[in-house]
Specification:
25 helices; mainly alpha; five-stranded parallel sheet; DNA Cyclobutane Dipyrimidine Photolyase, subunit A, domain 3; Serine Threonine Protein Phosphatase 5, Tetratricopeptide repeat; Rossmann fold; disordered C terminus; globular; single chain
């Protein structure tokens, strides 16, 4: 249907390179209108924060600048999707809608289902294309790795050379924001604080390329080991998570560029470069995490109800106290535990903290404060500029210990100071009231409260012991092993097709963990 008019519906995919939906829309259609709909339901969602709206406006502005150089643009309109489609269709009919598959929460999933119904009713074709190595309607987890490999190593799509086809019909022009108007945070009722403006990471395709280049050439040498500390992770980490989350660069492009860098480093190693070996070890660890990222997002795609209930249903009856005063103290970084409070305050200012500290924050909230993972879901999501529902919800449940096929990990915030911030540089940066105390005094805060700073809100060891008891009470219920086995078969990580006995061995190893083994993982 070469004379057709299509809409390219932008969601979390603000880029031109390696963009399957835009590329196919331009190939199939005579005219394509790129549209970004600013949905009030997104702006008002309980998980949305200024960091997320900043990412959208930042990325959208960069994309529009690139298109405007080609004398085309993205049409930006504020409104929910279905009423907007009705309005556009009434003014001028179109034949197709192209978009990427979004692995999101129920709100976006319900919206996408509604779009399918609308298209069927109006005889409009809705084409959704994959932009990550996550597979819709995956029936066999054992086959996921082969699909992941095929997609991730597949041909990267260049920036389309026919962008002149991107046009806004004259019948629609008055419905959108003016052509060259930059959509600002303030237009949408949001504003970054002075501190947030100082620290928040730029999110755009242009910045994605700069960030990846600096990581592969300059910063990535200390990735292995450097990402564990909240102090060094800001530099040693790739900082690509925001670009994956908002689609300013694809995971497979990053994977393939990292592969190319690994080949360069191999040549350098053979030529005697003393750092090449360390570089390769760091980038190998990074590539492994790219694989794990899709693995965890696949869980939400396969089991969308995990937004509302534990992946392992046995834990739906796990008892929590859910004290509002504890939640408030945790959200505001006032728990009396310096590493916890420093991380929360860092997140409130920057929108970023490293993975280990995110795991510690979840563990402290669930195992120490006895707050349900459901209760901290949205407050945590709001703190992350790189909020990705599949990663966030999967890790939230995993660190809360309600998946049941992993070793129970209970982090000690004090041990994290000793291991990751022994000179308390990170803590003093984010908790100014502790700057006059020595590292030794800060590390001893549980035994000797620090003047001018809250006393510890709980007796941590007792609280952790009690929550461990509750978790293991669930693991002792009749039929638990069979439940955990089913969870593993559907969601467990593996490459290729394991034998059944291996799958059961994995569940036994990770699920029914003896207390002695658990203690080794604490901290």
């Amino acid at each position: 249907m070469k004379n057709s008019h299509a809409i390219y519906w932008l969601k979390r995919d603000f880029r031109l390179a390696d963009n399957p939906a835009l590329t196919q829309a331009l190939s199939d259609s005579e005219m394509v209108t790129p549209i970004y709909m600013v949905e009030p339901s997104f702006l008002e969602a309980p998980e949305t924060s200024v960091f997320h709206v900043h990412a959208v406006t930042n990325a959208l502005h960069d994309l529009r600048k690139k298109l405007q150089k080609q004398k085309v643009d993205v049409a930006v309109i504020e409104g929910e999707v279905i009423p907007t489609l009705d309005l556009l269709f009434q003014k001028k009919k179109f034949q197709k809608i192209y978009a990427h598959e979004e692995i999101g929460v129920e709100r976006t999933y319900a919206r996408d289902r509604a779009v399918h119904k609308w298209c069927k009713k109006n005889k409009v074709e809705f084409i959704e294309l994959r932009q990550t190595a996550v597979f819709r309607r995956l029936k066999d987890r054992n086959k996921r790795h082969l699909g992941w490999k095929k997609f991730t190593l597949g041909e990267l799509l260049p920036v389309p050379n026919n962008l002149e086809k991107c046009q806004i019909p004259k019948e629609w022009k008055k419905l959108f924001f003016p052509k060259r108007k930059k959509l600002k945070l303030e237009d949408l009722g949001f504003e970054l604080t002075k501190e947030q403006k100082k620290y928040v990471q730029p999110v755009s395709e242009t910045d994605a390329n700069k960030t990846l280049h600096s990581f592969l050439i300059d910063r990535g040498l200390d990735y292995r080991g450097g990402i564990s500390s909240p102090l060094s992770a800001f530099v040693a980490g790739s900082r690509m998570s925001v670009h994956f989350a908002w689609g300013t660069m694809t995971g497979r492009m990053v994977y393939q560029k990292t592969q190319a860098r690994m080949e360069e480093l191999l040549e350098l190693k053979e030529a005697g470069d003393p750092d090449a070996g360390k570089w390769r070890m760091s980038l190998r660890s990074f590539m492994s995490r790219l694989h794990w990222r899709d693995h965890f997002i696949q869980r939400l795609e396969t089991e969308p109800q995990m937004e509302f209930q534990a992946l392992n249903p046995a834990y739906e009856n796990l008892e929590y106290d859910n004290r509002p005063d504890f939640l408030e103290a945790w959200e505001n970084g006032m728990t009396g535990y310096p590493m916890v409070d420093a991380c929360i305050r860092c997140l409130r200012a920057t929108g970023f903290v490293n993975f280990r500290m995110r795991a510690m924050l979840t563990s402290f909230a669930c195992h120490g404060l006895h707050l349900s993972w459901k209760l901290i879901d949205h407050p945590m999501a709001k703190l992350y500029t790189d909020y990705e529902p599949g990663i966030h919800i999967s890790q939230l449940q995993m660190q809360a210990g309600v998946v049941g096929i992993n070793t129970l990990r209970i982090y000690s915030p004090t041990k994290q100071i000793i291991d990751q911030d022994p000179e308390t540089v990170f803590i003093k940066k984010w908790i100014p009231e502790l700057r006059n105390f020595s590292p030794k005094e800060i590390i001893a805060h549980e035994e000797n409260p620090l003047e001018g700073y809250p006393a510890p809100i709980i007796e941590r060891k007792e609280a952790n012991t009690e929550m461990r008891r509750r978790v293991y009470a669930v693991r002792k219920i009749e039929g638990y092993r069979d439940i955990a086995q089913k969870v593993y078969e559907k969601h467990g990580s593996r490459k290729g097709k394991p034998k059944k006995k291996n799958a059961k061995k994995e569940v036994t190893k990770n699920k029914v963990v003896k207390k002695k083994a658990v203690k080794k993982k604490v901290g």
